[in-house]
Amino acid sequence: MAAEKIGSVKGGKSYKSFTVYWNPSSGEVYVDISGKTYVGKASSAGQAMRMAEAAVYNK
């Protein structure tokens, strides 16, 4: 199964919006920062969003 868009998060410094993708079968989380950037594995969509927020905190 491919990663699906589950939402977007805003960068802490730029307030730019970044799209978040999560693959429920593998748990892989990606954020669209100059292309899909792998940020880790999550067991739920909520955890994926929190990981994405942390990844773009200084963006």
Q: Report on the biggest sheet.
A: 4 strands, antiparallel
The end-to-end distance, rounded to whole angstroms, is 29 Å
Strand content: 35-45%
Overall strand count? 4
Principal-axis shape: globular
Summary tags:
59 residues, alpha+beta, four-stranded antiparallel sheet
Q: How is this fold's topology laid out?
A:
Blueprint: E1 4-10, E2 17-22, E3 28-32, E4 36-41, H1 45-55
Summarize the structure.
This protein is an alpha+beta fold and 59 residues long. It has one helix at residues 45-55; strands at 4-10, 17-22, 28-32, 36-41.
Structure description:
With 59 residues, the chain is an alpha+beta fold. The protein has one domain (4-55). Helix content is 19%, strand content 41%. It has one helix at residues 45-55; strands at 4-10, 17-22, 28-32, 36-41. The chain has a four-stranded antiparallel sheet, covered by helices on one side. The protein is globular, with a radius of gyration of 10 Å. The model has no long low-confidence stretch (mean pLDDT 94).
